[in-house]
């Protein structure tokens, strides 16, 4: 059976398999490794993963809450200065 030309000429995965050989599967476009070797590591973030019903858990909102409670903690421990 003849191998498709695109498969022969495309970039190959640079990862090493558990058997110790190099993978050589076609790499994901723009990445060094194939889909099995971490080119798509983790779930998509934000809206693409179905987040954001009310905006209360966006990265900005969480950071703001964290900052506010750190400030409150400092005020409780040291009192209001400056
Ligand atoms: Zn691979």
Describe the structure.
This protein is mainly alpha-helical and 82 residues long. The chain has 2 domains: 1-40, no CATH class; 51-82. Helix content is 30%, strand content 0%. The protein is built from 2 helices and no strands. It has helices at residues 5-9, 59-78. The chain starts with a helix and ends with a helix. Bound molecules: zinc ion. The site of zinc ion has 8 residues, from loops. Zinc ion is lined by residues 13, 15, 23, 25, 33-34, 36-37.
User: Could you describe the largest sheet, including whether it forms a barrel?
Assistant: none
Listing every helix as H and every strand as E from the N terminus to the C terminus, the arrangement reads HH
* Strand residue content: under 5%
The DSSP helix count reads 2
- Principal-axes shape call: elongated
**Broad structural category:** mainly alpha
**Average pLDDT rating:** 88
What's the total count of β strands?
A: 0
Radius of gyration: 24 Å
Binned, the helix content reads 25-40%
Ligand types: zinc ion
Total number of domains:
2
Which runs of at least 5 residues are low in confidence (pLDDT < 50)? none
Comma- or semicolon-separated keywords:
82 residues; binds zinc ion; elongated; 30% helix; 2 domains; single chain; mainly alpha
Architecture blueprint of SSEs:
Layout: H1 5-9, H2 59-78
This protein binds zinc ion.
In short:
Helix content is 30%, strand content 0%. The chain is mainly α. The longest helix is centred in the C-terminal third of the chain and has 20 residues, at 59-78.
């Amino acid at each position: 059976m003849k191998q498709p030309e695109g498969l022969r000429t495309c970039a190959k995965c640079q990862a090493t398999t558990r058997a110790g050989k190099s993978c050589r599967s076609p790499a994901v476009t723009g990445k060094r490794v194939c889909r099995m070797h971490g080119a798509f590591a983790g779930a998509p973030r934000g809206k693409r993963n179905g987040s954001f019903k009310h905006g209360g858990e966006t990265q900005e909102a969480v950071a703001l809450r964290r900052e506010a409670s750190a400030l409150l903690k400092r005020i409780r421990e040291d009192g209001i200065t400056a």
